[in-house]
Amino acid sequence: MIHVTVVCAVCICLYYCCAILFLRTGLSKLTKGVSSISGNLKYSIIIAAHNEETNIEACLRSVFLQTLSADRYEVILVNDRSTDSTLEKAKALKAVYPNLSIITITKTEAGFSPKKYAVIQGVAAARNEIIVVTDADCRVLPTWLSVIGACFTQNTGLVQGITTYEYIQGMSRIFFGIQALDFLSHGIIAAAAIGKNFPINSNANNLAFRKKAYDDVGGYGAAGSVVSGDDDLLLQRLWKNKTWKICYMSNSDGSVITYPARTLRDMFEQRKRWGSKTVHYNTKQVLFLGGIFLFYIALLCMCVAACFSKTALIVAALMWLVKISGEYILLIPGAKLFNKKELLSYTIPGSFFQLFMVLAAVIMGVFGKFGWKDQTFRRTVGHA
Predict the structure, then answer these.
(1) DSSP category for residue 85
(2) Where in the chain is the domain with CATH 3.90.550.10?
(3) Which CATH class for the 32-262 domain?
(4) 46, 101, 199, 357: which sits with the fewest CB atoms below 10 Å from its CB?
(5) What global pTM score does this model have?
(6) What is the pLDDT of residues 304-343, one digit of tens each?
(7) Which candidate, 47, 81, 71, 51, places its Cα nearest to that of 61?
(8) Beta strands per DSSP E along the chain
(9) DSSP 3-state assignment of 325?
(10) Which helix (H) or strand (E) element contains residue 4?
């Protein structure tokens, strides 16, 4: 029995190596992007906020520091059932920034997740063709919109950008480093997959799309009931449509800054939410990620089998070597791209942490519950 397990583990390990090489070639295909139409573009920035009184002012002020003239963009804040002072703080800023408009949602329509419903209302109110989305707990750079615009050609439907974590004062440096590296790996995979024209994941912290492209695929469609995935699922719908080009904004001058989870429990709830949407991906993406997930399961099984077999111990050690080496193959160029090379020192401890986090988060996110914004959800609405 142990020999059959070893053979299966080796085969899955070979698949993992091929997947890493596939993604690595995607990173090499990314370009900074220079568009001839960027000077004619106008933008509608949508920010959905639910009880963000501690973040909303800094977020909005950073958005209004854009190097572009104010007549080229509008900001739509969707106040999503906030019970704190989010709305009051936003209204105070509206007096300073006339191109800020506020939509207040008092109830989410049945059949929609709260975040998607809020974004849908923002898109419906948008006056400009390019929709740009970020979150209320983020801050953007002054060059944000101009860098986004440089990526849009006539047939570009969606642009995904870089988001990085900022250290929270007083947080354990090790916990921050491991968490920031894990978050970085998600961004690197997104960039690499888009580079291979096989988009997998996305990030709504820094996302832009044409309103026409959004309308062409029917917005979120049936995915509107999926609690998470206002980014990944829209990205994959556009890719499946084959009409529009998808681009990764690899210029760090267009980065968005956000904060990590403050506790291990908060991080786990966040990762469960991210894991919950993966079963709603397109079939090809599910199969691709499923192979990597099987590699993780096989590695864990070989670690257990290593307690009883010397052969399994050797195979487990080799699989760990393959996993960590594969991560370095992606992380080294990716960290350079994202301007986060200092996080590479956390690769080895982060690799061990990530194995258990991914396995637990995906399984519990798909089959269990997770917390988000002081509420409890399952992966689709109506099943808390």
Answers:
(1) S
(2) 32-262
(3) alpha beta
(4) 101
(5) 0.93
(6) 989 988 988 999 999 999 999 999 999 999 999 889 999 9
(7) 47
(8) 43-49, 73-80, 100-105, 130-135, 139-140, 156-161, 163-165, 207-210, 245-249, 256-258, 370-372, 375-377
(9) helix
(10) helix 2-27
